Amino acid sequence: MSRVLVTGSAGRLGRSVVSTLAAAGHEVIGVDRAPGTPEEAAVALPADLTDTGEAFEVIARFRPESVIHLAAIATPFSFPESVIFKVNTQLAFNVCEASVALGVAGVVVASSPTVMGYGAPGGWAPHYLPIDEEHPVRPWNAYNLSKVAAEETMKAFARAGSTKMAAVRPCFVIPPEEWAGAPTQSGHTVRERLDRPELGGVSLFNYIDSRDAAEMIAVLAEALPELPNGEVFFAGAADALARKPLADLLPQVVPGTEPFAAGLTGTTPAFSTAKAERLLGWQPKRSWRTELKDESE
Fold first, then answer.
1. How many CB atoms lie within 10 A of CB 291?
2. Distance set, CA 100 to CA 28, 94, 137, 165, 258 (Å)
3. Does the global pTM surpass 0.90?
4. Coil, strand or helix: which one is 211?
5. Residue 31: which H helix or E strand, with range?
6. Which of 46, 138, 176, 216 is most deeply buried (CB count within 10 A of its CB)?
7. C-alpha to C-alpha distance for 161 and 99, rounded to whole angstroms
8. Beta strands 173-174 and 106-110: pairing type?
9. Angle between the 14-23 and 210-223 helix axes, to the nearest 10 degrees?
10. pLDDT tens for residues 65-77?
11. How is 2-19 classified by DSSP, letter by letter?
């Protein structure tokens, strides 16, 4: 058993990460200003990690072997742009700095597929499909810019110290209650996202069950000692959140994808998780077809 500190432990992904790590026998320290950290956490602490002193104090107090950094303003445009950028970048910097300074062995930082830049007002087209970790990033708002900054912050601290670090880009996270009809982070339900392709099309129909994402993060944290420092991984479902093949849908909802979408036949998603499968041996287990229990399609 090891001690793992999870920031953002009350969030839609954080709750699953806490439960997954605790079920695997780890002692989990949950840190979140909001209530809702699962009871499986040994400690739930409402610390403000944008405060450098608090970040150092929390890590010095608990001395975790690993830190999973998920805390962030998680929805674009939900706060003023300057606030989103300031909060998210300060969180990433403080957690990485304190972890390295206090000798944490491994850190996983949450990023986002939005760093690709899809949805840009001036138009967007991929360089190729499916998108992998080598695809250029093109941020255009404070949220995805803050996630690029978080990745680069992680890489900078990975180069500067002995702490092993990585970043994960979880696709559109869907926890169990949202399969049952609760609103997603975008305000609509999963079923509405399936019924109206323009909703899911903005993000190229990407998604992942929160439990699959949590399991991937747990595997990644365990594998850090054997990986090159500063790696970045996508985490997504094995299929697209769409009833029709993306070869048909993407050109309809995302102009500019026509030259590349033809290869996305069947249920093939727009984001590749081949790197996670190759380096971590991880594959997603859950699909909207299995989790949306009364779906007749």
1. 18
2. 19, 10, 26, 10, 45
3. yes
4. helix
5. strand 27-31
6. 216
7. 10
8. unpaired
9. 60
10. 999 999 999 999 9
11. -EEEEETTTSTTHHHHHH
